[in-house]
């Protein structure tokens, strides 16, 4: 498999060596993986935060009901 990578600058196109292309591909894949892990972690923290708020809310309601009718 041959991957052709060029970077456009204000002047002429700059052709990159095969080693540089492979390095850029590896860095790109690593960066995408890192971003997905970060987004996943943030989503998990957000879900946990919302779950804690809901649990506290229902705990207050159930405690109020139990104390009122006990």
Describe the structure.
This protein has 70 residues and is mainly alpha-helical. It has one domain. Helix content is 74%, strand content 6%. The chain contains one helix and two strands, in the order ββα. It has one helix spanning 18-69, and strands at 6-7, 14-15. A two-stranded antiparallel ribbon has the order 1-2. The longest helix is centred in the middle third of the chain and has 52 residues, at 18-69. The chain is rod-shaped, with a radius of gyration of 26 Å. The mean pLDDT is 79.
Looking at this protein, list some descriptive labels.
70 residues; two-stranded antiparallel ribbon; 1 helix; 2 strands; 74% helix; 6% strand
Into how many domains do the coordinates divide? 1
Q: What amount of the residues lies in strands?
A: 5-15%
Overall shape: it is rod-shaped
Helix content: over 70%
Low-pLDDT regions: none
State the end-to-end CA separation: 74 Å
Going by helix content, strand content and strand pairing, the class is mainly alpha
Q: What topology, given as strand order, has the largest sheet?
A: 1-2
Question: What can be said about the biggest beta sheet?
Answer: 2 strands, antiparallel
Averaged pLDDT, please? 79
Q: Number of DSSP strands?
A: 2
What is the number of helices?
A: 1
Gyration radius, in Å: 26 Å
- Following the backbone from N to C, one meets helices and strands in this order, namely EEH
């Amino acid at each position: 498999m041959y991957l052709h990578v060029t970077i456009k600058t204000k002047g002429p196109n700059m052709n990159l060596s095969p080693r540089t292309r492979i390095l850029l591909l590896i860095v790109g894949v690593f960066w995408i993986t890192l971003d997905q892990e970060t987004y996943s972690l943030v989503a998990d923290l957000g879900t946990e935060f919302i779950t804690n708020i809901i649990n506290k809310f229902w705990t207050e309601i159930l405690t109020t009901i139990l104390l009122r009718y006990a």
